[in-house]
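> @MW can you paste both from yesterday?
MW: sure, first one:
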Amino acid sequence: MNAGLIEFNQPTDPYLIDETGSFNGYHVKKVMLKEETAALTKEKFSGAELVHNTSDILEDESIHLVIVSAPDEADMSLVGKALQAGKQVRIL
């Protein structure tokens, strides 16, 4: 099963992601980053496609789980959008 990662304010804890770029058995297929975390996250998810907007993740039917890393209050509407798109959501 595939996951999409959306990072907002800080890089995802490296201990949550294994050396193959998987999270709890999900393959991280697509990653959306904020510029300040881009370099760090590109290293961790070298096998993932880097995308520039949330719709690339939410509209991908092969993605079952959306991981939202470090959202602030304004970013929380994304959780509702992901649920409406039929995705499971994990907030880190």
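MW: second:
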Amino acid sequence: MSSKSRVIFSDRYKMTHIKKFLLIVLGLSLILIGLIGAVLPILNGTLFLLVGIILLSFESTRVEKVVLSFVERNEVVKKWYRKLDQLLRKLFNK
């Protein structure tokens, strides 16, 4: 393996970790905004919570299992989850 290919591999490796870190930070930030929105009448916290949880489920299988078990029990959430999941997977190439 040449040194140039090692550098490219190393850069890709760093980018995947940076992307994963940013996705987790964004997901947690949206969940925090959603929790604030649940208390304040100005914000609609439900949408922020749902988007944040979906983003976290991209990186954590444990979160994904919990979300899917909840989604299966609630028809309204299932409809929104499917739409948001498809949109976010397109945006984040997941």
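> thanks! The longest helix spans residues 3-39.
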